[in-house]
Amino acid sequence: MPHTQKKTSDVRIATIEPKILYYGTPVLLLNTLNEDETVNISPISSSWALGDYIVLGLGTSSKAYDNLKRHPECVLNIPDPSLWKHVEQLAPFTGKDPVPAFKQALGFTCAKDKYAVSGLTPIPSEAVRPSRILECPLQIEAEAVNIRLPEYADFFAVIETKAVRVHAHEDILIRENHVDPAKWSPLIYNFRHYFALGDFLGKTFRSET
User: What is the rounded distance in angstroms from the CA atom of residue 149 to the CA atom of residue 132?
Assistant: First the structure.
């Protein structure tokens, strides 16, 4: 059935006060280096990319934030929808010990071995020290080049990272350096629910595939 545009008179709009604004962004599993050279895995959903730079939003009470201040290397592992249960297995755990009081109140507990908790598999990185996650179809080795604490909020940090090496499962590639959008779907975090991408609608004029 062809799509029909709604008339202005048919659109009803409400003013709301949602508790969260996770309006639908890809999930990242952020690997950072602990003090003892083990790896912390943090599920995050606040990121955007421009060129070779990816900007992350991290809570200042997180282990990932502590780790990046001390050691700027990281890996941005991007899961597909099939991995959502592994992501959720990580969700109630933090690498912080002791667990911050407000996280305790929310039900968080400390877990040192995030690979064991998640059931995911570590593989060595090539240009950074934190390991990559084998199961994630996209793995981006990166370095934090700037960490900024906004003047208007002290509970999160803006982390600017630069990609230094990108890895992809071969079955999602269309050519040597192109990801096939028809074969690749990121896991989407949509108002605290997990989703896959929907149907293909079209492509931008700048697409090379």
Answer: 27
> CB-based contacts of 156: which residues, under 8 Å, 6+ apart?
57, 58, 59, 60, 150
**pLDDT number for residue 208:** 79
DSSP state of 41: E
Give the pairing of strands 28-33 and 39-44.
antiparallel
Q: What is the mean pLDDT of the chain?
A: 93
Q: Is the pTM of this model over 0.85?
A: yes
Q: What confidence tens digit (pLDDT) does each residue in 104-148 have?
A: 898 999 999 999 999 999 999 999 999 999 999 999 999 999 999
Closest CA to 34 of 105, 112, 122: 112
Q: In this structure, what DSSP letter does residue 157 have?
A: E
Question: For residues 47 and 154, is the Cβ–Cβ distance under 8 A?
Answer: no
Phi and psi at residue 189, to the nearest 5°: -100, 110
Closest CA to 182 of 205, 168, 201, 166: 201
Average pLDDT over residues 170-175: 94
E strands, 34-137, in order: 39-44, 47-50, 53-59, 73-78, 93-94, 109-110, 122-123, 132-133
The DSSP H or E segment spanning 148 is: strand 138-148
Given a contact cutoff of 8 angstroms between Cβ atoms, the answer to whether 24 and 189 are in contact is: yes
In whole angstroms, how far apart are CA 177 and each of 48, 174, 181?
20, 8, 13
